[in-house]
Amino acid sequence: DSGVTQTPKHLITATGQRVTLRCSPRSGDLSVYWYQQSLDQGLQFLIQYYNGEERAKGNILERFSAQQFPDLHSELNLSSLELGDSALYFCASSAGQGVGTDTQYFGPGTRLTVL
Amino acid sequence: KNEVEQSPQNLTAQEGEFITINCSYSVGISALHWLQQHPGGGIVSLFMLSSGKKKHGRLIATINIQEKHSSLHITASHPRDSAVYICAVDQYNNNDMRFGAGTRLTVKP
Question: How far is A104 from chain B (nearest CA, A)?
Answer without folding.
Answer: 6
